[in-house]
User: Fold these one by one.
Assistant:
Number 1:
Amino acid sequence: MSTFWSIWISVIVLGTVFGCWWLLWATRKNQTTDTETDRTTGHSFDGIEEYDNPLPKWWYYLFVGTCVFSLGYLALYPGLGNFQGLLGWSQYNQWEEEVQVADARYGELYAQYGDIPVPELAQNEDAMQMGQRLFSNNCAVCHGSAARGAIGFPNLTDDAWLYGGEPEAILTTLHQGRQGNMPAKGLMPNMTPAQVDQVTNYVLSFSGRARSEEAAQAGKAVYDQGCAGCHGADAKGNQAIGAPDLTDDAWLYGSTYEWIEETVLYGRNNVMPAQSPRLSDDEIHILAAYVYSLSN
């Protein structure tokens, strides 16, 4: 936070607290008596008159105490711009302390599964219950609670793996993350609109859905020049670089003509974040076994 905004926030916060105190003091000062009277404010509504009685002392002192408490709180904890408070508390430190407590409490529980091979661990019911909770807390927001994915997020329950479904590949994905990049117009940036239509029809022809057989036939030459370098001459994909198989029915961004055309025209860029900064090696091992179990 910049110095200007720090000062601005501090002025507003302190101005509010002292403004409330001044309002209480000014109101109390203008009162002529501390006891209830029959004096009214001078106006009535529907025959009901409002008495002009002073604020009860206990109520007044309660408000004053609130102002004093506010100043004490602001002195001890963050609340005045960049000032961290005399106690040095922060939400980040609090979170780190809670994580350390959780690691100490559950670390041994996770560690007992750390040396078990992923395929074997996938058969352990207790470990899979832990894996399901880890998945729900860290993966379900993208892949869905049932791990069936969504547009742009892979389905983890089928056998269509961009980078491979072997335990080692899943562990690498979880530890290091993945960066997927489909360049606009593939490896042929000078692709014309007609060629985009042709290669789109060619890809659709793998599943017998080409809009034009003539365009599909012409699209093979475009595919060989602009797409085969990644997806392969047979369009079966390349797991080494995360290039998907174009001949199956697993489509990350939709399989209609319009979706494929958009992918060819504008490309795609997708990120699977690395989990290592947030999860321990043992937690990732259990999570990998759970993901492995979804398609095995």
Number 2:
Amino acid sequence: MSHACHHHHHQPSPGNTPAYRRVLWAALVINAAMAVIEISAGWRAGSLALWADALDFVGDAANYGASLAVLSAGLLWRARLAWLKGSAMAIFGVGVLARAAWAALHGEPPQAATMGIVGTLALLANVGVAVMLYAWREGDANMRAVWLCSRNDALGNVAVVAAAGAVALTGQAWPDLVVAVVMASLALHSSRDVLRQARAEIRAAA
């Protein structure tokens, strides 16, 4: 649940090696797959926390793709990619908050079992990515930020699992809504930072 992860990819990385590229591609695929899984499971289980966590996976997948592009692309194209990513994060974040507001009035408790299972799977995915990136944790700022991002995102998964337990214990929807609102709010904060930096870099590179 670390919102500081989403603006690191503008710095060039010296890690332009086949091994590092393979790890970044694996991280991208894992995060994209988990985003799809959590969006689908969130819909079936009625869990906004899973949707919000999916937003984080979407942002991370874009980060890994951008990190790959950083190894060879110019500043203007990286900035344009960042602007698109920031816009998508903002749209999804607003959507989650709007859906949370509706659910607070009309929603039913989500399926705690599905939340717990998928949240645990997401935690394992983030830990696995962090382990893969561990060898590059002391690289340049971009490489270190990529590793820290995956490590810190596990906190979001822990929050989802905790919310699932609270939903199971209370039979109420509010734990799911609280986690969703916090995570979506952090995503919106990240989106603002990404868009601000992207606009500045687009102007500088134009």
Number 3:
Amino acid sequence: MTASQHQPFPAWFFDREDPSPDPRFYGPPRLVTHIDDGAIAAVGELYAELGVDGSAPGPRRVLDLMSSWVSHLRTAPAELVVLGLNAAELAANAMATERVVQDLNADPALPLPDADVDAVLCCVSIDYLVRPVEVLAEVARVLRPGGPVVITFSDRCFPTKAVRGWLAADDAGRCAIVVEYLRRAGGFTEPEVSRRTPPGRGSGGRYRGDPLYAVVARRLPASGAAPAAG
């Protein structure tokens, strides 16, 4: 346990402009994407690199947290459990084999047994969690040893629903926040941070597209020891 894990987040960190129940806000289906095409492609490429989609050999049971009508996988894994707030959006997810409607801010306990999934995904949603460490501790519980948790995010959000600590941070700060969530949750290897889209602006000052960042960690063995290299 690092020194930072003994220090609580500031009292205001998980406040939100709109603290009303999330099912009310997310009640109307939104069959749209929340990042641009370049960022979506970067998410799919990352999932393929990590071997969590249908292109990887062997059985793959994947959990997509805070999901919607699309999971951004290039190809469907053998089993895809999608968990989100809107039943209509989840029903429209053609890759899903199981659908769970659940508000993780009200109940962070995942309705899955221990060591049940090969990978857990969370795309452009981590900024809305008011109990992220509890949720990620549950992710560690349901992941099989060696399985990755893949957290991706951009600079877009619904600002009234994102937590204040997230809104107050820049891109580097947000990466650090996610790393800290995972460290405090426990059970994971040291998180790895990467930017998956080109930085800066293109010629003529035109913006190249939404930035897409990824934080990836893997479930430690039950002993808590880091997996052997090689």
Number 4:
Amino acid sequence: MDELRSVTADDVAAARAGFLAERANVVAKNAVTASGIRAAARVPEALAANALTFDVEVKQGDRCDQERSGRCWMFASLNTMRYRVIRRYNLKTFELSQAYPLFWDKLEKCNWFLENILDTLDEPLDGRLVSYLLADPICDGGQWDMFRSLVRKYGVVPKAAMPETACSRNTRDMDKYLTRYLRGCARRLRESASAGVGTEDLLAMKKEMMGDVYSLLVTCLGEPPASFEVRLRDKDDELALSGTFTPQEFFSTAVGMDVDDYVSLISAPTADKPFGHVYTVSRLGNVVEDGGVRYLNLPVERLKEVAIAQLRDGLPVWFGCDVDQSYLRDEGVMDTAALDLDGLFGFPVEGCLSRAERLDYGESLMTHAMVLEGVNLDADGRPTLWKVENSWGKDHGREGFDTLSDAWFDEYVYQVVVDRRYLTDEERAAYDTEQARVLAPWDPMGSLARAR
């Protein structure tokens, strides 16, 4: 029995003999040890199948760069919004401030975290829930619903009104020290409650803590503008928009997007999430008074259909995916045929789990948010290839763009955000009226897009 439980010398000898008996194994070893797994598994024909020409396409301004931050969900959201400004005022390019929502998201996440600490005072410190809350309370990541909450409350501003800082370009140290302070706040609140301090006094302590949070954020990011001057010139150098605006006024005037019309659709084919129903995630959100997230779970084919419908109407589509899977990052190619890992190793590695099984067994979740800006269709109108605007700068991929094969969409796209008018009557009714089923905080559909 011990031999069955242990790795024995005979096991190693047999495995070595089996490896050396196959010529392909030796070739693979030489290639991988010299150049790495992805380079050795790269399929060159995949690039030819991912050309940047599209049947349906939305033209955007210059590429944006989130740099060393996990703000992809913000960049994706702002990229769908800036497109409206570019189109409305006939601009060559335009960029909304990404530092501005970063400031307010951090502030709101800190308040959300402290509210959760106050709500879990009776939970054990070493229990799963409190441990989860303490693990990464104010990470850069987020979801569309969280961005919508920020826009509702704070509006948006042009990049010139609140430019990037060293701490927005690289959020690591800001996040590190803010997290440390918040954990100290959690200790003070829990110990005060144990000592008999009442609810009103605990809330007063929290208000004082939030003042410190504001101070730290202003130190790192600068103070968000309450109002600002705008002068936008169009492609012909004519003045297209000028005046003084508050952030809410600028969003209403320049962007003119009804964020409440946009709904979040997910596709999680797991047994615990039947299609056609609405879900939320416990403890996930940022703006306390706005609540958490709300998803309608649909088959992946429906996500494609509504995304194509919105693209045909000339509007880009926010989407979330597991970006690092089957990905040629330098070339900007997401394609299940781009890497032949199973052929390289000689047994199923990528192919050992289905889409549902990857979610159930912790292999996959949404890691990155980007924007769909184009699609190729076959003779029957089915998608074959998608154009993607990333937020990693113009030097990434092909001038800042990626491509996404339809087979890759089937496997690794988990979320799209579209105007509710593209849903069926039945889907709208479910989204609007159904009591949301609550998922655990650590459910894969509660992951926050934050790849950098």
